[in-house]
Predict the structure of DUF3429 domain-containing protein.
Amino acid sequence: MPETLPGPARILGPAGLLPFGALVLLALLVPEWRAIGLSLLHAYGATIAAFLGAVHWGLAMRPAPGEEGAVWGRMGLGVTPALLAWVALMMPLRAGLVGLAAILLTTALVETLAARHGLVPMAYMRLRWGLSLGASACLLLGATLA
């Protein structure tokens, strides 16, 4: 039987891309709102980067049998995106947006390695890569406008 995601994940995950797209469109199409749109994009990107770690913190809190050895790595991955996102918020706007895109993509790469060891469901990774690529594209487009 193929892995599937819970219905809410298939709906709420992609819905999380809507603010990324809306804020980039605002910055592109309404020049007088560009600065606020990009500032909001910066803040939303940091919020999402911090959210990514919650998955791993949750997995570490209740490890599956045989996965107890992954607890430290999971908890580390659970806090790292939030700490890096905090740093990205303190950076100049363009650098911060690029940094956030890098955080999203690097976290997905690390998660892919974990998935290859059976620590993260592949169904999650398929969703995760689609969301990360979409969000990163918006952040990078925003960086070109900053």
User: Anything to note?
Assistant: The mean pLDDT is 93.
